[in-house]
Amino acid sequence: MTDKWISRLILGLTLTFLIGPFLIIIVAGLSAGETLVFPPNGLSLRWYLKVFTVESFRESFALSMFLAIGGTLVALLLGIPAAYALSRYKIPYGEAIKTIVAAPIIVPGIIVGLALLRYMVMPLNVGITMALFLAHTALVLPYAVRVVTASMMNLRSDIEEAAILLGCTRLQGFTKVVLPNIRSGVLAAFILGFVTSFNQVPVSLFLSGPGVRTLPIDMLAYMEITYDPSVAALSALLAFLSVGIVALAEKFLGFSRYV
Amino acid sequence: MSDQIVSIKKMTLAYGDTVAVPELDLDIKKGELLALLGPSGCGKTTTMRAIAGLLAPKSGAIFIDGRDVTRVPAHKRGIGLVFQSYALFPHLSSFENVAFGLRLRKLPSAEVKVKVEAGLSSVGILHLAARMPAEMSGGQQQRLSLARSLVMEPKVLLLDEPLSNLDARLRLEMRTELQRVQRETGVTMVFVTHDQSEALALADRIVLMKDGKIVQIGTPDELYNKPVDAFAADFMGFENIFAVDGEQMTAAGQSVALGFSAPKGHVAWRPGGVAVGSGAHSGTVIGRAFVGERREYVIDSPLGQIKADTPANEPSHPMGEEVAFDLPQASARILPA
Question: What is the pLDDT of residue B68?
């Protein structure tokens, strides 16, 4: 009897710890007061509405969307052929390549950010937007390769040969038979890539510059100057966006199979 | 010359530096059902892939219908292949699987529909046109795969181990089905198998291969009754094989009187050819199995382990019994070196 209550208590505390901050942020954003506090001073939607009127939020949101969508698309364009080659052919040092490709997942973002800033952006004088775009593409690439490789593994290679014997060229075999069968893997990779890029902080922190910031960096900057509840409101909105995307993905794709 | 659909000339196949098939010569006749038979690694599948164009020969040439196709890519050869795993397209319905190749030929959709339906009904699965491959049984998938290749009206239809993934009952059904399809369409069929009984039951002609080389080509009758060497004999069920020279044969390292004379080479008996109950030799029963119409024995004797069958209506010999047996000249297959 006591065992049961202890395990329930532990479960409750764990859930509180996981979900609590999320709830606090949502409620804090609903405050009617001028500063970010919990519990809030009265309730209103003013800060949720104000978020949409802040010019820098609009700009940085647009940049973040561009990086997340564009970077992920480019990563897929590079990652799908890479995943194809890694899963279909005996490539010398294939296993080593897979490990190296996965490196950005393991290496702390702060190191990647510093390295890119010091040895790419500064010596080569790369523009801020370009640097951010390249960095985000590189950060998403491992997920693209990994997730697409996983769905390629489930696909028998002889269906391509069957397609060829029915009159397909190699390329047609890929587009008509391979792509349709790894479609859900590609979509899962896109969503994972999007969320990874959109929520990226440490690398963007190093590479952001005057007037060009991703949304999370802009939020940090905003808070240093203005300590009002709009950051909480925006955080809550972004959290809902991420949760919504992942929930949809899970419903339609069985997303959790790939991650 | 005109009755050959495929002609292979001095074809060498290799994976990297490893030669799998050295300088193979083989003619396949139009409309025949040919089996490429051999143990795994004998080069039969490799040869089949080369005919399909999935593997480029290192040297030599392949002619189809008198045309040199050695450098023609697989998608332009007009060869069908039914894969061992069926290789159906999982994202397409069975109708669309069969329509796949026809659509690539840009046939008008009305014609595609007619051909697909004819194809599906020729293998008896027209009622499954809307099913996805994953919703079909193994036998149905096999039929679908067959229909998908047949609607393309291939010059040659290759089948990779067509019966190995089916259970015993389906195997018999599919065997009959393949023969019927072959008879009705007249398509040349070449199938690869490691199972001699499958080859014997299905083929017009059998090509027995070992280590990338052809050991024997012939009708099922010829291979079964007149294997040309010890390997062919062993593969065709002559399980008791001994080296022989004149009046003496070598068994278990000893010289034993043969009882008759044979040229230097081998002499072999099927288990059914060994006479159990009387004879010059004797041994102990160390294995026995009742398989319905006959009993199978393993007899441990000075000649080594002898495999022998007796009709089921003869008295049975219990384990451990000392039995006499004979290796008669009448049932011996003599294989000169």
Answer: 94
